Amino acid sequence: MRTRDCIALLAVGLALSVGPSVAPASAFEGVARPQGEGGLPTQVQAPQGMAPASANSRGIDVPRPPGSIPHGGGASAVGLPSATLPRPRAPVPVVTNPAPAIDRPLPPPTAFAAPSVPITPFEAFKSGARAMRDGQKQKGVASLEYAAGQGVVAAQWKLGRMYAEGDGVEQSDVRAFEYFSRIADAHADDNPTGPQSRYIANAFVSLGTYYRDGIPDTDVKADYQRARQMYSYAASYYGDPDAQYHLARLLLDAPAPNGDPRLGAKWLHAAANKGQPQAQAVLGRMLFKGEHLQRQVARGLMWLALANDNASPSDGWIRELYAAAFKQASDDDRARAYDMLVGWMNGRRD
């Protein structure tokens, strides 16, 4: 379901005064809403002094225990289906195929054979990725390692993901950490809009996740400040929405004195305006409940509707939040949320 379908669904629900049936209305116990709809700050200021790691997305893509969003407290808070949200996981950029396939027709035999042309590092990466897809793990790993050794960022990133997940190789967070560190050390200052920027930003996010959790029985210990540096660099220099979401969650979830909910809300807003669904969902929840922000039920419902539309099949928690919020909202709240959705679709960002 795309966003225009989401708007249509919200409009139909408004007309029928009936919400989605995923979660009960009692998930949001009825509480009178305070008046006023204050605006959310929109200018995101990146933390100062953030630099890339000189050493280095999880046991990454492996589901983690949920992490909690701090509660703002106060009489106006409204219960959600669950008090916790799942821990963010390092995103996976898509491996693109900009070059043509290297399977070329063989030339006819000649009396004098020409010397073979050495395979280029990028061709080795393409060959390795294709071998992995075909189930030829040993051949694929060998080609990817050759390409990675020649400095192909996509190959280094691919191997980092493989070791993090145990895909075709023995699982090793240490080896994954080393590959992501190699990318961060060599490419931190690359063009933030260049073709490799997605891999580089994701390497920083992956390093941030390793520093956030640590790697057991290694020298990589849980280090809040180092994790914040990794997330902040990708969020500010590369403007990566996934990094902005991870940074926001770090600032929201961390206990005092490390937490900074107001700054976390700003980073959430930056990522949400770029279409990051988890950021949209958490921001919508905070606004709907009045956690750390002035309570704005209609605006919160708008963000939850967008998140619900953009969510992946594994993001069931987003659908639960949206369904419960829709049932709790009044007809007036739904109508205003619908108007805000239309404005957001037309390019009005706030």
3D architecture notes:
The chain has helices spanning about 5-15, 120-135, 135-150, 155-165, 175-185, 195-215, 225-235, 240-255, 260-275, 275-290, 295-310, 315-330, 330-345; strands spanning about 65-70, 85. The protein is mainly alpha-helical and about 350 residues long. Helix 10 packs parallel to helix 12 and helix 11 packs across helix 13. The radius of gyration is 23 Å and the shape is elongated. The chain starts with a helix and ends in a 5-residue tail after the last helix. Mean pLDDT is about 75; it is low at about 15-80, about 95-100 and about 110-115.
SS-based class: mainly alpha
- Strands of the biggest beta sheet: in what spatial order? 1-2
Low-confidence stretches: 16-79, 95-102, 109-115
Average pLDDT, to the nearest integer? 77
Q: Number of helix segments?
A: 13
How many strand elements? 2
Globally, the shape reads: elongated
Percent helix: 40-55%
Question: Strand content of the residues, in percent?
Answer: under 5%
Distance between the termini: 24 Å
Q: What attributes characterize this protein structure?
A:
350 residues; mainly alpha; two-stranded antiparallel sheet; 2 strands; 51% helix; elongated
In short:
This protein is mainly α and 350 residues long. The chain has helices at 3-16, 121-133, 137-149, 153-165, 173-187, 197-213, 224-236, 241-253, 261-273, 277-289, 297-310, 316-328, 331-345, and strands at 67-68, 84-85.
